[in-house]
User: What shape does this take?
Amino acid sequence: MSKQDALPISISGLTKSYGSLFALDHVDLEVKSGEFLTLLGPSGSGKTTLLMALAGFTRPDHGSIRFGDEEIVTMPPHKRGVGMVFQNYALFPHMSVAANVAYPLKLRKVPKAEAAGLVERALETVQLGGYGERRIGQLSGGQKQRVALARAIVFSPRILLMDEPLSALDKNLREQMQIELRHLHEKLGMTTVYVTHDQREALTMSDRIAVINHGRLMQLDAPRRIYERPANRFIAEFIGESTFLKLERKGGRLNFAGVELEVDEVPEGRNLSLVVRPERLTILDGTDAGKTNIFPGTVKDLVYQGDTTLAYVTLADGTDIAVRAGMRSEAAIEKVKVGERVALGLKSADVVLIPDEER
Ligand code: ADP
Ligand code: MG
Assistant: This one.
């Protein structure tokens, strides 16, 4: 398996409805050759439907899917050259590890001797070398997950699809497997479409993230851009913590509660809200200057959380806003008291504006 074998995926106008519900609503999406792309969205947003359409287990109503130059939307699953890891592993419990991993090779009529070598190599790749004779029932959750992965990659697919493969594992193992899957991806280089509802997992693993909601693609960007420049309120709320401050326009400038905003550029058109992440705010101690927005407020609550301290500050218009400071910071957050008047600083470079939406 070399990187040249990976294929780009081109999805256009993909639509699937169940009765009046659009599980997929005209999805256009390009996955680059060799890319690790994550579909991120809440439960019921259409992630599995999209993955199943790629794998060939769900037939869309409209639209096109191309692997490279080839239209595959009506092609049966086993001809698509796609490896798939299902959410519940879907292993055969009565069969040995080796027989499970060999299953796709059997379907493809690979001769037994050759298959045995491929199975052992796939098991070694997922660090289960020598486990071939074990029964599925004897394995831990993490080991089952590795078997499912070995089965997905054993025939060197051009494209790897994974549907919430780590969701059944506990937090420590899940975080370890995230890094491991990422390394495996770098080694094998397959075009990978990964599904999760866990925003941190998506940020950790992906080259790019496609955020979906109600069957629609909301934003497609690198993790850092998704987090730092969310395109709308849904994304800003779903990924990380945010407070939204409704802005007023006055003569080409933007205002919040009488404070004129320092913005690099004021967009035209609609009403806007300012998106503020807790870790982008600082409690000013009087020495800060330059292009910083300053919001006065009163400390309402202080919450010690071990690695960080969180302060809730009530702003002039009554909005409570969260301010987070890391453990090692020399920040004024360590010194303030509940009830104290403070000034919060937000650098103009950290100003993120989104269109207002009726909620
Ligand atoms: P996700 O994987 O993001 O949780 P799904 O793709 O499984 O979401 O589902 C998207 C929407 O389509 C949900 O509202 C779900 O209830 C609906 N849905 C999925 N499969 C079917 C089906 N076979 N019949 C009816 N509704 C379905
Ligand atoms: Mg799902």
The pocket of magnesium ion (ligand 2) is lined by residues 47-48 (CB under 6 Å). The chain has a mean pLDDT of 91. The chain has two domains: 9-231, 241-355.
